[in-house]
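job 3f2a | input accepted
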Amino acid sequence: MPLDAQKSDAPLLEVKNLKTHFPIRKGVFSKVQGYVYAVDGVSLTIKDGETLGLVGESGSGKSTLGKSILRLVEPTSGEIKIRGDEITNLSKSEMFPYRREVQMVFQDPYSSLNPRIPVGKVVAEAMAVHGLASGKEADERVQDIFAKVGLRASQTRNYANEFSGGQRQRIGIARALALNPSLIIADEPVSALDVSVQAQVINLFMDLQEEFGLSYLFIAHDLAVVAQICHRIAVMYLGGLVELADRTTLFKNPLHPYTQALLVSIPVPNPEIRPSAENVISGDIPSPSNPPSGCRFHTRCPLAEDRCRSEVPEFKEVEPGHWVACHLRA
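job 3f2a | predicted structure (330 res):
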């Protein structure tokens, strides 16, 4: 690990009240006319060896949150700490050692790979940049990493277009592993894959976690997927967290109406089983540039009261380890 791992009292990752707002510019002089509130006050922690799932509909701000934690997108305000060290306002050169500690696996593996360079060199490039290995040593390490993610050593000479979608995602995972990170942020890593391939990639993530003690922030929109791999699950809606609990608690006792709606939307083998009417939500997620007042979910919530339309619910711990932002659970 590139950082001081002796700070055992500090979580691997700690995010406090993180906000990422994008200005909306219009007119000849590009004046700011408003903001897109992509991430609006998110707090979470991840411990060593833990997988935190982050779920929600498209447009909830999940991917922006992941990129903001890595500072691929600059946050507007808040705190990001890695092993107790705040990285929120570090310069690019100061961020350099932290790039080794936290890596990312992107949703579209093909667009994240250079099509003009053999995939083995893509993986080896990160090692060279961080001074970990070069030349023959780097080639041997790349071949070893390829073997760990289920690829052949001979495939290091191939180009990205010569692989299937599942194989490309394995290459993306290999690139993330090349720097021996502690945390991998996986942004919808299986959403573009066939169901059978999804299972293979999820099993790969779990095997690598057991072997290397990795931690994951696993971003997905499918609760059925995160149920297989995550220890805790955070539910995100329109820029903020609405519920956070361990996997068992969230599935057995979901407290927020949005979480309940996500759970009943999971496909079931028996077509005769239908979700109950009170848990069904309609309509689309509102625009993050003009979020509703009060509870942001009230425009779609079947249980909304007058208070929900005017007061923002506090995200608080209602049971040990179970956090929710809902006036009905006060």
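job 3f2a | The mean pLDDT is 89.
job 3f2a | closed
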